Amino acid sequence: MIVAVLGGSLMCFPALRDAAIRGMQRQVQLACGAQRRIGASGRDALVVMGANGTSIAARGWSWARSNRRAIGLSAVAVILPVVGAVLLSMTRPMAGFEDKAEVRDPVLAALLDGEHLVPPPALPPEVFVTAELQAERPEIASASRDWTLMDGEFRQRILVLFQQMSERGYELALLEGYRSPERQAQLAAMGPHVTRAGAFQSYHQFGLAADLAFFRGGKIVISERDPWAMEGYRLLGERAEALGLTWGGRWKLMDFGHVELRRAGVLGRK
């Protein structure tokens, strides 16, 4: 409404319109004058700052030239310890700055330092043909338990796993390590309740998988109905994953005793 009233007044009263135009022109002139004065003052300030900066730089250079010996000795005193520390660190860690990550975790220490654990003694063949084990894993009697057929890195991780589980009161037994493609095909033919992986589709064929169980009282314990065994499987999965292994207990078709070391581009390769 205010805009409409002002617009109508300017249209109806020429004298008012002329006065408004003269007022606007006067404000524009004042603004331009102020801008010119500010610009002149800014240029003057920059000139003064430049002169002061040049004077300061000249005095600084003069001081540096007259004290160059002291400056040189100070620079050497600062640089020499740094150079010495760098050279020393190339041969051995500085005291107090060693890489503690390698010694905090004994598992990583065993793996990274190249410690080769020895496989446990082979269990007697008769422990793998008991009625209980045959009911759970009827094909296990003919499985390979030859540690030398397993991948070296994977074998060391499994042996560390054996060691850690023993410290927690669970002795492990190797049910199966390397598995030939022919045996894999035979197991696949028995149905998905045994395995869904055909030949060259399992890490067993590449020595990168193992099936484990517990050994208690001279017998293989594999039953998932045993609370003691299920607690052991939980610990087994926890420690296996901490070692970078894949645990079958997280699969849709759960295989609590299965662990594997996955590598890209392995499966499917003959």
From TrEMBL:
InterPro entries: Peptidase_M15C (IPR039561), Zn_M74/Hedgehog-like (IPR009045). Gene3D superfamilies: 3.30.1380.10. Residues 197-261 form the Peptidase M15C domain. Pfam families: Peptidase_M15_4 (PF13539). Keywords: Membrane, Transmembrane, Transmembrane helix. It comes from Niveibacterium microcysteis. It comes from the Bacteria. The chain crosses the membrane at residues 70-90. Signal peptide: none annotated. This is M15 family metallopeptidase.
